[in-house]
Amino acid sequence: MQPATGLENDLPEPALLSPGQVLWQRARHHSGFLLGGTGLALIIILAIAAPLIAPYGPSEQDLLQRLKPPMWADGGSAIHILGTDQLGRDYFSRLLYGARLSLIIGLSAMLISGIIGSTLGIVAGYFGGRIDLAITFLITSRLSMPVVLIALAVAAVFGSSLETVILILGFLLWDGFAVVARSSTIQIRDTEYLLAARALGMPLWRLILTELLPNIKDALIVVATLEMAHAILLESALSFLGLGVQPPLPSWGLMIAEGKDYLLFEPWLIMIPGTALFMLVMSINLLGDGLRDISAPEGRS
């Protein structure tokens, strides 16, 4: 046996990573998170920079240039990169402004539904009893309603506008937040740190905002990404059916609806906004799935 030399005590101890560094290490090696985040960031940048990038206004018409194909097709030109629609409006410009519109609707509807659903879920999970029964009944009632049919009926009664669509979607998509917030609150409401905070006489609003909400925010962020994608798809469906965003606003769903009459002869009128919608929703879903794996990776590959 070799005698101890004492050099073992001189070896540096391995550095401990902070929680933020651990999340960053997980994020760097999650391909879905990186792909979704990159795609969403690119779309957001293009939407914000639309007034600088777009060669034409989204509603600017030139009937002499109507139904021009994209530049890579026969008869296309670099003047209109993605061609023009049936009114001679530049498709690339409308696509950029449509991204801005979709992001505004998705984010606004998600915030409204998130505030409503998270509040109801936290109240139900924290207090329990009859309050929990009443809110659970509301959640069950909401889950039994077909979202698209209710949205169509409300839009038909109150009219179609950007503000109306945002409010309709915001008041219809809160159930996911409520279910997750309720179950997460039930899991942690009797933990030591919450019991200690109550014993110290912390006000209820402060306890919820500073102790409870930070410990369930990861689950709510994941739900927020999924509901944002859901809201964008629903807005496109409403616009396609004529009860969503109205012309001349460049909604991607409206662009698809306007191009359906030319499907056999000018299929790119539907393929371009449809592909853009697919990429946006897929990027948001990949980002949300990655956030779920990163924030709670146990048992997930």
What would your notes on this structure say?
By secondary structure, this protein is mainly α. The chain has a single domain, classed as MetI-like fold (Orthogonal Bundle), CATH 1.10.3720. Helix content is 67%, strand content 0%. The chain has helices at residues 19-28, 31-48, 50-53, 91-127, 129-143, 147-158, 162-172, 175-188, 192-199, 204-240, 252-259, 268-295. It starts with 18 loop residues before the first helix and ends in a 6-residue tail after the last helix.
SSE order and pairing:
Blueprint: H1 19-28, H2 31-48, H3 50-53, H4 91-127, H5 129-143, H6 147-158, H7 162-172, H8 175-188, H9 192-199, H10 204-240, H11 252-259, H12 268-295
Summary keywords:
301 residues
N-to-C series of helices and strands: HHHHHHHHHHHH
User: How many helices does DSSP assign?
Assistant: 12
Strand content: under 5%
CATH class division: Mainly Alpha
How is the quaternary structure best described? Answer: single chain
Rounded average pLDDT: 85
CATH topology (level 3) name:
MetI-like fold
Report the major sheet.
none
Structural class: mainly alpha
Using the CA coordinates, give the radius of gyration: 25 Å
Number of strands: 0
CATH architecture: Orthogonal Bundle
Helix coverage percent: 55-70%
Offer a quick outline of the entry.
This protein is mainly α.
